[in-house]
Batch of 4 targets.
Target 1
Amino acid sequence: MAQKKHTLNPDKWVQQHADYLFNYTIGRINNHDLAKDLVQETFFAGLKAMDNFQGLASERTWLISILKRKIIDYYRKINSIKGKAEVKMNFYSDGEREGEWIEERAPANWNNETDKNIENKELNLVLEKCIGNLPEKYEMVFRMKTIQQFETEEICKELDITSSNLWVIIHRARTQLRKCMEDNWFKN
């Protein structure tokens, strides 16, 4: 049985795909205006790349793959603008204990019930605020790895960081999120 060849219909992209692409983007970028810009850029790039469309994937799948590249490019651009210096604020930086936790900065334990409460709208608002308060690089890496579920290798390649640096950033982001959540949610 021959596989169905998909076709492109750019005249209906906005009507059929704009909301879906916007919602996909806003979940990864968390900036309304930027999300709209990235969707527009995706449509424009799609128009320019129409000759490359082979019809093996659906139109929406093809547009999403373009959008993913746009999102990665956005994060790469931020990374290159911001510098690559990392502040070693939670770990010993030299001596026998290098890389170990500084005891007073180790994260406190959370109750396992927290995972069940994530569904709560108020908790989501506080969590999103805490994610938004992370240093820009931490937020970028945390969103790409934890929320968008990009592969470690892909993030490292796109942001020009090592996998060990990525995991340090993830760990520090989680530690800061935990502290923020403890201060803004669990003490209420």
Target 2
Amino acid sequence: MTVFRRRVDIIAHHANGMDEVRAALEDDFHHFRVWVRHHEGEVTAIGGEALRYPYSLCPQACGRLQQLLGMKLDRIAHSVTRQTDASHQCTHLFDLAGLAIAAAARGTHQRRYEINIGRRIDNRTRAILIRDGNEDLTWEVNGTMIEGPSPYSGINLREGMARWALKALSEEAAEAALLLRRCTLISMGRAYNLDEQVHASSTARCYSQQPERAEQALRMKGSTLDFSHQQLELCAQDQAWLRQRL
């Protein structure tokens, strides 16, 4: 059975009076890295790297992460959206930066998220999030609606979920729920031959999809992989970088 999979690995380092968090993300469509240095509760340096991406202009969005310089560390990953406009960032680099900054704020030394979204049958799927080896979230999803379990029942993934999660859930539960939401939505791309696209759509949802550059953001054909039966390969090539000493 075809399964959409994503892994996020986060590791914090402290050496020579310097604090840095490194984070890597890989799924069927994307492979990115982000590093964040911080001092006295503030982001002092940040950078990103695009290793596999859907459109030719996606790597340019790495530079947009500089808009997070000077941000106060915040335990809520979604707080990066208050610092700058997410629609002018690479969605996945930006999410990863938020996770890294939240890890720094909490003093989290290491974290791994593993997300599995099953093949849709009659528009239904099961979405699972595993955090540090423990299955934390399992949703039964119909289209964009979570059917269960409580307290997620009746929540629409596309309508106000972030606002609801940040108000109703603990900070780490909200982080997990919003990560699982992201993956559940983008997993729908598995139903299409994305390589039939010539360039990004002009939706204004992310850096490459802004109207002024969408036609120049050419589709990276062959960039979609299938990790249904190869989940151990996710982020495998990031492990040395993640653990590299400062």
Target 3
Amino acid sequence: MSETMTMNAPLTAADGESLKVKLARERRNKQLKAIALVAPLALFLLLTFLVPIAMLLKRSVDNPEVITYLPQTSAEIASWDRRGLPSEAVFAAMARDLTVAKEQKTVSEISKRLNMDISGFRSLIQRSARKMPLEVAAGESVRDQFIAMDERWGDPDHWHVIAKNAKSWTPYYLYSSLDLRETKAGTPELAPEEERAFLSIFGRTLWMSMWITLISVLLGYPIAYWLANLPARKSNLLMILVLLPFWTSVLVRVASWIVLLQQEGLINSALMGLGIIGEPLQLAFNRTGVYIAMVHILLPFVILPAYSVMKSIPPTYMRAAISLGDHPFAAFWKIYFPQTVAGVAAGALLVFIMCMGYYITPALLGGPQEQMVSYYVAFYTNVTINWGMAAALGSLLLVATMTLYAVYSKLVGANKLSLG
């Protein structure tokens, strides 16, 4: 009986404390220490990665100008039924808001935003603001004074634009990035053909990225295979040549390619000296030059992941397949190649994503028809100071990147299951 009671009693440590409680406390302390070690890195990633992305996404739909600088107009026009012209109260609110905007020197912010929807709205707002405050006599209509000031105030389309933008968010920038426009009913429709630009730019970006990735894989795979099957000493020596471009600035490499590829450059001079060509080839400032330079810059990003995977494949697999009567090429295709797909796919994905965001190489080595989406992100950021359009284009690039990564993860997961 006493032995049974002893076996059922809870285990205790030397100090008499329950062993289960003590182990739970030790486990909790280890978890807290692990969290404390990871916390600085998590905070760093939050501040430098997640917060900027969240700000980018917010900025792509942010629309503060009208609701901030025309607050009374925004409040009054919310009850407008969008038929005919707004009420007298809306015109009176606009007069008060423009008076305040004139005093606070914020007219340019309002006019710049509204001019994106209707060309000429900038001059309308600025001209009207200069005539503020209005002197309204008893029994006189503010609406009539606005229309007498400029007949465009009698156009309902201008008031539709103000009503549409009298809220803190807008799909305008995202629609514009996809060559869409918002109808009066609030639904998107494709812009007229002569106004479309960004769909072709996104198509060009994807097309060029696809070809650069394909060329990089076709060149990088045999190089990685060769390095993986060389003796370690020779392989390590040649790997330095693969890593050497990382120690040189991208700008320096692009400038070097300009020197090499221009009509009087070293490549054309050598080909003409050998009698291969009779006149210089146009290799720079076109798509050919962009492809050559970007493949040179991005090739290591295919070689390194492929090499790391190939190096881990035992050579006995191929020898065993050949010894069992399989042709060397068939053994390579059925045994060796499927095991390298994950590394090659990772390198291809990395190259494709980097291509979509490349800016310097197409800007320096390409012509107008070689500029990719990143060029226009920089244009709207640095030249026109249109943060909304820059953020919208950047957000679409982010969505494309995440979509590619999701597809890659699914394909790699399916490949692992098939190999398993």
Target 4
Amino acid sequence: MTIIPVASGKGGVGKSTVSSNLAITLAKKRKRVVLVDLDLGAGNLHITLGLKNISYGVGTFLVTPSMDITDLLVRTEYHDLFFLAGDGGVVGLANLTFQQKKRLIEALMTIQCDYLILDLGAGSGFNTVDFFLISGRGIIVTAPNMAATLTAYLFLKNAIFRIIASTFPKESKGALFMDHLKRDGLSLQKIYISKLLEQLKIADPENFPRFEKVLKAFRPRLIMNMLDEPSSASKAERLRRTIVQYLGIDMEHLGVIFRDETQARALASGLPVVLYKPQGVMAQAINRIVERISRTQEGNMAPFLNADDIEAGYKLAEAEASEDYIEKMESVETLFKEGAISDGDLIETLRTQQYELNQLRKENRFLKSKIVKASKDGYQF
């Protein structure tokens, strides 16, 4: 079974849309796929699949000690795709206890399928990060704006702290060293990971090799979603360089996805976009991503790509972004000529884009002020 957790540093970057369309496309390739909504407390993944009135799911499993998780799988209308809903109306599951989380993870491991796709909640909470770390090959979905890329970076930084916490045993020299940092009131977010690891190696040479082995196996993958223009694809490479330099890990780039105006219509129709418009720009991007996932040797212990392969992946993604943009513009022109898009639709699209640009300007001004303040306080990114 190949486990693919899908996460994002923040909401609104299209993570759930990506998860559901990946699951459907893999299932179309005759793979048995189970899609799990692990956005506990705010799960709505069933909507993207056109499912309604699901009253049971992960929440039901957690409050029913004798429940077998496989009994909660819903057979969807898509062949070979099964779905496990989120909280199922059970209140208070946003913060799981350790025992609940342990039982849930163990149960997920018993599901028989080719691909287990876990759609996680947005943000960097402990539960979300722990579910992401079930696999070393999880996917980060982000968008080409500062807030999205910054929170993606911080998500991975928090993941490394969780790896440290889980690989250095309690009362070990490494764990005591980390506790000492916290007691000194030093924010871990202000620490360079590279410097921290050097200090950890000195503080606990006995347990450091185990941590180093786990960290080397941690190779998350990236999808840059919601592009508006080809030049935005280069932001994925910049994010990767930052992560390599400051976190000491590398990321494979699975591909880019342009913002698709048909997505809202697809959602309203109860169809995923890969079926609503299979020849569309977004559907083609999803198909390319699935091909890359399929070509990777299946299983969580698959050998990782080397540096040259990863570098080539980022260059290929930028080339694909240019091709997709041309196709997207041609599609808009065709739809307009055929009357499928009216003058009003074009005007509304421009208004929406203008609104988004204004929001981004406000967001950038806010982040700029925060960065300036942080630099004065000695914050280390």
